[in-house]
Design goal:
about 230 residues, alpha+beta, Beta-lactamase, four-stranded antiparallel sheet, 6 helices, about 30% helix
């Protein structure tokens, strides 16, 4: 499943844990745990407990994606904050006839810093070089998780994700991709979801008439960093 929206090694996991424990903040700013205001039957709220009730272990596990749930649509909407320089804008299934104003939830410089980090993650040496596309700069992040079964997680069932934006300096689209139970021998988001992101971005920006912001040449590199989850 891919949703276009207009507008990982072990040490990194440890780093995210430490930052989560030291600077745990409510994620509701990005609308996690809240049902999207859309006339669409599949819109769900996900799960995020009130931040005042978080225990230290929950702050740590949520830093790398466990202990909460969000839909693919919610992930795309959260990334739109980075694309819009820190503004959260209302979402709609219909094309807006005029520019839509948003609510500022991050300082512009912080959103731009995150975009730069996402660009590095999708570049040479990152976890998702397969997300790169010809002619357009991209930025995004991989995700890989065991599927939830009952009150726990399945040991051999996975979901692979990639969520990103393009072009990096002046984003026009956010694309979120989720591959449910990949069966081709690979399950990391950088292997199964990033190529779908790349193709979706390539075709979407061309249809929108967006001029390339990079030299038109393949950006795929041979070596990449293995992601973890």
């Amino acid at each position: 499943m891919a949703i276009p929206l207009l507008m990982d090694g072990y040490p990194k996991t440890v780093g995210r844990c430490k930052k989560g424990v030291l600077k745990g903040r409510p994620e509701s700013t990005f609308k996690f745990g809240q049902k999207p205001q859309l006339p669409f039957p599949g819109a769900v709220s996900g799960r995020l407990r009130p931040h005042k009730s978080w225990r230290p272990i929950e702050q740590a596990t949520m830093s790398y994606g466990y202990g909460l749930s969000a839909s693919l649509f919610q992930l795309a909407q959260a990334y739109s904050v980075f694309a819009r320089d820190g503004q959260l804008v209302p979402v709609t299934l219909l094309k807006a006839e005029s520019p839509v104003g948003g609510m500022r939830v991050l300082q512009a410089r912080h959103a731009q810093s995150v975009r730069n980090m996402l660009h590095l993650a999708a570049g040479p040496g990152g976890t998702a070089p397969k997300a790169q596309t010809m002619g357009y700069s991209v930025g995004g992040k991989t995700g890989t998780a065991h599927k939830q079964e009952g009150r726990g997680y399945a040991s051999k069932k996975y979901r692979g994700f990639f969520v990103g934006l393009a072009p990096v300096e002046q984003p026009r689209i956010v694309v979120a991709v989720m591959i449910d139970e990949p069966t081709a021998g690979r399950y990391y988001g950088g292997d199964v979801a990033a190529p779908v992101f790349s193709e979706t971005v390539q075709q979407s920006l061309r249809l929108l008439g967006i001029q390339p912001d990079m030299a038109v040449k393949p950006q795929i590199v041979a070596r990449s960093v293995e992601e973890s989850f």
